[in-house]
Amino acid sequence: AQQCKEHICQDGYNYKIFYSVDTDNLKALSKDSDTAFEMHLGIQATSNGHILLSPVQKPGYSDPVYEIVVGGGGNQFTELRRNLKRNARTSVKTPRILSSFEVRGFYIKMSH
Predict the structure, then answer these.
(1) Residues facing 111 on adjacent strands
(2) Which domain covers residue 100, as residue numbers?
(3) What is the maximum alpha-carbon separation in the chain?
(4) Rounded to whole angstroms, what are the CA distances from 48 to 19, 37, 51, 84?
(5) Which residue in 14, 24, 55, 107 has a CA-CA distance of 20 to 30 Å to 36?
């Protein structure tokens, strides 16, 4: 895969490492004209895999971001939030979606 990065996080609920997305490069790589952003990732954790999509590094609680929580609530639900740690847009029961023994694969795809 093009420009893959590996990040092993053991920082709890703090976002410390940020990666920027080259939107021009995304357009050139996209095979689907409706796809604005696509990310493939793996999570190995007992619970609470957090992914933050933000236009700025280190956003505040009022900044518009997308925070995805996989295996929240003790590995019982997955949630899409519009702000850091609040304003859930949707929440789905996903019991045992994560595993502390194996990497589970996911992908995020956003359309225009």
Answers:
(1) 35
(2) 23-111
(3) 39
(4) 20, 23, 10, 14
(5) 14
CA distance 30 to 24: 10
Domain annotation covers residue 35: yes
pLDDT digits (tens, 9 = 90+) for 36-50: 778 889 999 999 999
What was the pLDDT predicted at 1?
A: 44
Q: What backbone phi and psi angles, to 5 degrees, belong to 53?
A: -110, 115
| CB contact at 8 A, 72 and 108 | no
% of residues, the chain, pLDDT over 70 = 82
Query: Which residues are within 8 A (CB) of 65 and not within 5 positions of it... i.e. 6 or more apart?
Result: 52, 53, 54, 55, 59, 81, 82, 83, 84
Please enumerate in sequence order all residues whose Cβ is within 8 A of that of 66, keeping only pairs 6 or more positions apart, or say none: 52, 53, 54, 80, 81, 82
Question: Which CA distances in Å does 105 have to 1, 40, 43, 80, 97?
Answer: 15, 7, 7, 17, 10
Q: CA–CA separation, 36 vs 30, rounded Å? A: 8
Q: Is residue 37 part of a domain?
A: yes
Task: Give the count of domains, the chain.
Answer: 1
